[in-house]
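Progress report, Aim 2. The chain analyzed during this reporting quarter is listed below.
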Amino acid sequence: MTVARTEDHDSAVTSATDHQDLPGQSVTLAASSPMQLDNGGEIGPFRMAFQTYGRLNEDRSNAVLVCHALTGDQFAMDSHPITGKPGWWSMMIGPGKPIDTERYFVICSNVLGGCMGTTGPQDIDPATGKPYGTDFPMITIGDMVRAQKLLIDHLGIDKLLAVLGGSMGGMQVLQWAVDYPERVCAVLPIAAAARHSAQNIAFHEVGRQAIMADPEWHGGDYYAHGTKPQRGLAVARMAAHITYLSEAALHRKFGRNLQNRQDLSFGFDADFQVESYLRHQGSTFVDRFDANSYLYITRAMDYFDLSRDHGGILSRCFMRTPVRFCLVSFSSDWLFPTSESRAIVHALNAVAANVSFVEIDSDKGHDAFLLYEPEFHRVVEGFLSGVCTANGVTAPDATSDGGRS
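Predicted C-alpha cells for the chain:
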C-alpha cells in the first residue's frame, strides 16, 4: 500500500505532451492560493509529479527527500518510463542500499519547470489555453524548493529526516537548509556550490544559444508548429555532457580511438569514438526532455546564489542553524570543484554549525555521484544512519501504513 495520497490531475491543467500516461503519483498544488515566485509573480494551481519508495513510520519521522539534478526526474529508483533504463539513483535507493527503503520513506519529485509531469513550459497556460512556451514564468531554485515544501505539507510530514541530492539537487538541498531549517534534521549537498560560477553560466549560455538558434525553436512556440528544436537541444546536451566528465574518464573510456574505421576520413563524420558517444548522448536526450524546460532550468541554476539575500556573506545564511550538514565533493569534479564545497564548510564553521565534509578521491568527474563509488556510498549510508540514531527514528512497522489510508 502506498502511503502518499494521490490526487487526480486538475482538469484545467493539461499538457502539450501526454503526461497523463506517466506512471507514479501527482498532485495539484497551490490550488486555493497561488505560490509566490522569486521574480515577483506567482503560479498556481500547478501540478507536481513525484515518486515515493518505502513506508512512513508511525510518527512520520523517517522521510527523506531526494532532489534531482538538471536533466533528472522523479524516477530515482524505478525504471524510467521513456528510456526503460534503471532509475538515475537505483544504485543508491532500495532495500539494503545506502538510502535503505526498509528504513526510510523516500520522496523524489520532478522540479517545477520540468517536463516529466510537473508543470513546465510545455503545459497549458490556463490564461491562454495554449502551451506556456517562453511565457512560463522565470523560476529559481528557491521556487523549486517552495513547491517541494508544498508537496511535503500535502503529504502530512512536519519534518524531513534528511534532504539530499547532487549538482542542481545539491543547490536545492542547500536552499532547503536556509529557507526551512525547522523542517529538516539534516542535509547532504553533493558535488554542489553556494552559487553558480561564471564558467558554469558560460557553458549554459552555449547550450541555450544552440537551442534558440535552431530554426525549429520558433521563439519557444514550437508546440504550435508541431516541431522540436532537436538539433539545438542535442548540441546543448553534448556541450553539457563534456562538463560532467573528467579528462581521465574520457581518456580511459575513449582515448583517441577511431569509431568503426581504420583510418581518418578527412571529413566531418564522427571519426573518433568520443564524437560518436557525444552524438549518441545528444540524440537520445531529445527523446525525453523538453527544450524550453532546459532553458528555464539552466537559467534557474545560473541565478542561484545562496548569499544574495544575505548581503553576499555566505555564513549569514546559516546563523543559528539547527541543521546537521554533510558535504561531499569529488576530487576530479571541475564543474563543481572541491573548493566550492570547502567555501560552504568554512561559512558553516564560522557560525559553529554542525558540519562534516568528505572529498571522495575519484577520477570520474562530476558524474561520480551517479556512478559506483563505494566510499561515497558508505558516507551516505553512515551519515543517514547517524542522523537516524541521533533523532531516535525507528524503522516503519511492516504492518503500518504510516497513519494514511
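The two ends are 8 Å apart (CA to CA). Residues 121 and 132 are 5 Å apart (CA to CA). These observations will guide the mutagenesis work planned for the next reporting period.
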